[in-house]
Design brief:
CATH class of the largest domain: Alpha Beta
Number of domains: 2
CATH superfamily of the largest domain: PPM-type phosphatase domain
Radius of gyration: 34 Å
Shape: elongated
Structural class: alpha/beta
Helix content: 25-40%
CATH architecture of the largest domain: 4-Layer Sandwich
CATH topology of the largest domain: Phosphatase 2c, domain 1
Mean pLDDT: 89
Strand order of the largest sheet: 2-1-3-4-5
Order of helices and strands: EHHEHEHEHEHEEEHHEEEEEEHHHE
Amino acid sequence: MGTENHLKILVVDDEVDLEPLIRQRFRKQIREGTYDFLFAHNGLEALAKLIEYPEIGIILSDINMPEMDGLTLLLKLKELKNPSLKTVIVSAYGDMENIRTAMNRGAFDFLTKPINFEDLEITISKTQEEILQVRQSMAEHHQLLSIQHDLETAREIQQAILPKEFPPFPHRNEFDIYASMKAAKEVGGDFYDFFLIDNDRLGFVIGDVSGKGVPAAIFMAVSRTLIRATGLKGISPDECIEYANHLLCNESTSCMFVTVFYGILDIRTGIVEYVNGGHNPPHLIRDDGTIHPVDLTGGTVLGCVDHVAYETRNLILKPGDTIYLYTDGVTEAFNRNHEAFGEQRIEELLARHRNLPIKDLVLETIRAVESFADNVPQSDDITLLTLRYNGQSTLT
């Protein structure tokens, strides 16, 4: 069927007088292009017509025919597995056994001979409605499959733009860094990144875009790219975030925004300059065992209000100290009792596992969150980034 208003009908009957009768009865519909009738005289001819005209929607078939009868044709049609192809069987009124067999073999409806053309017209109309519903469902199914394929492609692209090789700088032993992003849906709005600005400075960032799905994923990619490109210029964190915010305000639609923590580690001294733009404060894990949140900087989220001033603050990492960054997909993971994982469980986890290698610390966090959720579907992206300062390089 080319359109919803055009139906191709194959009439299969060895009575040669039937064709002119049908063409005469449905001449108006044929002239207007509503119905298009094709004719075959047995099941074999019908199968050949189906190959030639795969858009056929209704087969109106007699049961008793030479070479291949209607019941055998039904078996062959069943092998095609085409739910939008409907067969209406035609037989004598007293031939109920064959009619029952035909219905059991997949016939959609039946008519009795001699054919009542008013009944035939009603049956064709009813069958056409069923075909339209089936084809609409099939089209929606194919559309969903296409969307699913596009989402899988988007997921692959999104994962590809995030650093995923660890250690990322195997020639540097002054620090260790590890990160992970587990999207709640096919694509996510969280991101992380890190990059060497020069030989002595490492930029690192974690972010969380408002919203879900493809729009959040696109905004995430834009945010990550802007911050990286701006950060690589070597400017201060407050200048970098102010500039990124300005550009994001011009790009943001539907009131989307992103929370960001961006820091620059001076690899020689352990000094970290950082800006917090409305993000969860990271935890600072000291080598002596003390753990506390990193001070906020008073910055607001990016992408909402232009010309906002951000403040850079400093902290000093000593050898063995770790910065633990995360998104609210960790703290806002819920269990079956609608309890959130929360900040306290993070602090308790860090206290127990602070001496783990940073990769194991991230993986232990993910395991703890999944265990706490107890198979409750993940409602938000879970993203973590850990940075451990080892001190001055011992390489010569």
